[in-house]
Write a structure and sequence with these properties.
Chain lengths: 53, 262
């Protein structure tokens, strides 16, 4: 009996999609963290400027 | 970065930020590497999804091989950098090494998550199960939990010196789990998990090849995927480290500002 290649494309798509989502979340985490630090730095600078005036 | 450099020009306490104002060439190198990593991702995906042939036995699910194995390689590189950071901290007691260690764990953990998830997705059509009590699979899950605990336990220690010392020792010891995961199908004969990279000396039945040695397209795709995931790990750690440096600088400024108020 001749063996046939199984059809399991959906699992490949699922795996690659999951990997993409995890990596996208990792990059989003870095972007959001950078934004929060920048906002805090700007706030602190404003507070210090106000104090000097 | 531009914001931080602009802020560092201020005549105020922000002048202390000189330690997070990096040389321009380093920023350019990071930017260049980030662009290369992003663009080469499409090359890697093209090779994995179209260039490499479809496995006759496993079908398209075998293409998960290029993500599953290489994300483990990228995660291992990240965790090895944790060891370097931890060891350097214990020798120098310089907080920058502790920041490198935590940054690499935060990047290594998602890469190992990719490895776990793609492995489980691949197992479903091939082993007919998402998960089974296999020594390799369980060791991988334990390794993931060990590094997740690293982040949790760090957050539970208030004193920065104590936290850094604890994390350094923990990060060095935890790397044993990465080595164990790599070795386990090579030394135990009761695992379903195949050995594709390198020989399986004590467990020949675990040897799997996917024609890596006979089909140059599979070997080339694997090489590109391995390089990409390791490069992605390094670039992400570099970005994460810069954020950690900025956060530490900001923390110092906050403390100084608050002491002035007092």
């Amino acid at each position: 009996m001749e063996a046939t290649t199984p059809s399991n494309l959906e699992y490949m798509i699922l795996g690659y999609a999951a990997a993409g989502i995890i990596m996208a979340l990792t990059v989003a985490y870095l972007i959001l963290k950078a934004r929060r630090i920048r906002q805090e730095a700007e706030l602190l600078k404003r507070l210090e400027d106000d104090q000097e005036q | 970065m531009a914001t931080i450099q602009a802020v560092s020009d201020s005549r105020s306490a922000f002048a202390e930020s000189a330690d997070v104002a990096y040389p321009v060439w380093r920023t350019r190198l990071l930017f260049g590497l980030s662009v290369v990593t992003f663009l080469s991702m499409f090359v890697m995906l093209y090779m994995a999804l179209f260039y490499a042939g479809t496995d006759a036995v496993q079908g398209h699910a075998q293409r998960l091989f290029y993500v599953h194995v290489s994300s483990y390689a990228g995660g291992s590189v990240a965790f090895f950098i944790t060891v370097i950071g931890g060891a350097a901290y214990l020798i120098t007691r310089n907080a920058k090494w502790d920041r490198l260690a935590v940054s690499s764990v935060e990047v290594g953990l998602p890469l190992m998550t990719v490895c776990l998830v793609t492995g489980s997705t691949w197992a479903r059509p091939i082993w007919n199960t998402w998960w089974t009590a296999d020594p390799r699979l369980n060791a991988m899950a334990v390794m993931w939990l060990i590094y997740a605990a690293y982040l949790t336990l760090r957050g539970a220690i208030e004193d920065p010196d104590r936290r850094a010392r604890f994390a350094a020792v923990y990060g060095i010891i935890a790397f044993a789990s990465v080595i164990y995961v790599f070795l386990i199908p090579r030394v135990r004969d009761d695992t379903l998990h195949p050995v594709v990279i390198g020989p399986s000396v004590t467990n020949p039945s675990a040897q799997g090849e996917f024609e890596v040695r006979t089909d140059p397209r599979i070997g080339a795709t694997m090489g590109v995927a391995m390089t990409w995931w390791c490069l992605a790990a390094v670039v992400l750690i570099w970005h994460r480290l810069r954020l950690e440096n900025k956060a530490a600088w900001l923390q110092a400024l906050k403390a100084r500002w608050l002491s002035k108020q007092g």
